[in-house]
Specification:
With 366 residues, the protein is an alpha/beta fold. It has 11 helices and 14 strands. It starts with 8 loop residues before the first helix and ends with a helix.
């Protein structure tokens, strides 16, 4: 068996290569590298895909979260509740916006923000994270918020729904990332903010264009974070394939569920009732000797990974929050147990069978 990557970006490119090449030629001929017509078109297409009225392209997903938070114009130091089980960028964006990250633990099954823990935290705003391809329990977070702003981190949930409602359409604003490995990935860094509010959309756009809506007039503090036209070409081409690719991801996840069912020493991922998962990641849990199992997969050429080995609160950069080891036991246990298996739209049944057999052998040895 040839090496099996965690994500196969080359196979995805092969499906859109001709359209992307034609789009690049169009942009290179026109010279519209910034704020070009493909950016405007992609923003409209992605807003419609997300079930909202507005999308604003950004340079990356971290900027998108920060810009969404800044658009709320919260006071400096306002407390933003977010799950401890997330990529560090979520917390970074809160700090960069001049706000205070309030970490809370996650539920023990889906590992999403736990509304009961969030209810215990003093909050000015909420930043739930949709993890691995499924939405957080948004109806509970909105009820808990009681009118306080809710911003979604939807970087891992492009095309997912909860009770039929798309990712990005629940909060006052939502941020997403188009990092190459995402379900909808650019050929470099890119991101977006989506919202139904015309006023907030205008603020986000100004913030990402040096605080300006008119050249050389800067109404507010901003910075440079725009989606460039070449990335918009890529994203437009891929967006047309995304629904089909998400169907393929669901089929691959269902196959894993059958192949791995009942394996001793392995816990399979859980989908919350009401969620339609898009399986950005297929993350199993190995309660004992996870790193040895990972090494066995790597030795067999299987590109498995870990998301995330060190929780945010135990990162040196966030020691100042004052959360020692043991503060968030569910998150910390997940960090010791999570093992991410290859999953992408072009994963074959033979590859999955090989992965399952290799994993079963490694678990049996250990």
């Amino acid at each position: 068996m040839n090496p099996i990557p965690l994500v196969d970006l080359q196979a995805a490119h092969a499906e859109v290569a001709e359209e992307v090449r034609a789009g690049f030629d169009r942009v290179l001929t026109s010279g519209a590298y910034i704020k070009g017509p493909d950016v405007t078109a992609f923003e409209a297409e992605y807003a419609a895909f997300s079930g909202v009225s507005h999308a604003i392209g950004t340079a990356n997903g971290t900027d998108a979260i920060e810009m969404a938070l800044r658009a709320l114009e919260l006071p400096v130091g306002a407390r933003v509740v977010l799950p401890a089980n997330t990529f560090v960028a979520t917390a970074e964006a809160v700090v960069r916006a001049g706000l205070y990250p309030v970490l809370v633990d996650v539920d023990p099954d889906a590992l999403l923000i736990d509304p009961a823990r969030a209810a215990e935290a003093a909050a000015d705003a909420y930043l739930p994270v949709h993890l691995n391809g499924q939405l957080a329990p948004m109806e509970h977070i909105l009820e808990l918020a009681e009118g306080r702003p809710v911003i979604e981190d939807g970087a891992q949930s492009q095309g997912a729904t909860r009770h039929g409602r798309p990712s990005g359409s629940w909060g006052l604003l939502a941020a997403t990332s188009f990092y190459p490995g995402k379900n909808l990935g650019a050929y470099g860094d890119a991101g977006a903010v989506v919202t139904d509010s015309a006023e907030l959309a205008s603020l986000v756009r100004e913030i990402g264009d040096h605080g300006s809506s008119q050249k050389y007039v800067h109404e507010r503090f901003g910075f440079n974070s725009r989606l460039d036209t070449l990335q918009a070409v890529v994203l437009r081409a891929k967006l047309r394939h995304l629904p089909g690719w998400n169907v393929a991801r669901r089929a691959a996840a269902a196959r894993y569920q059958l192949l791995l069912a009942g394996l001793p020493g392995l816990t399979l991922p859980v989908t919350l009732p009401g969620n339609e998962h898009v399986w950005h990641l297929y993350a199993v849990r190995v309660p004992h000797a996870r790193d040895e199992v990972l090494a066995a997969l790597h030795a067999a050429g299987i590109g498995a990974g870990i998301h995330y080995p060190v929780p945010v609160h135990l990162q040196p950069a966030f020691q100042y929050l004052g959360h020692p080891e043991g503060s968030f036991p569910v998150t910390e246990r997940a960090a010791r147990e999570i093992l991410t298996l290859p999953l992408h739209p072009h994963l074959t049944e033979d590859q999955q069978i090989f992965i399952a057999e290799t994993l079963a052998k490694a678990l049996a040895r250990i």
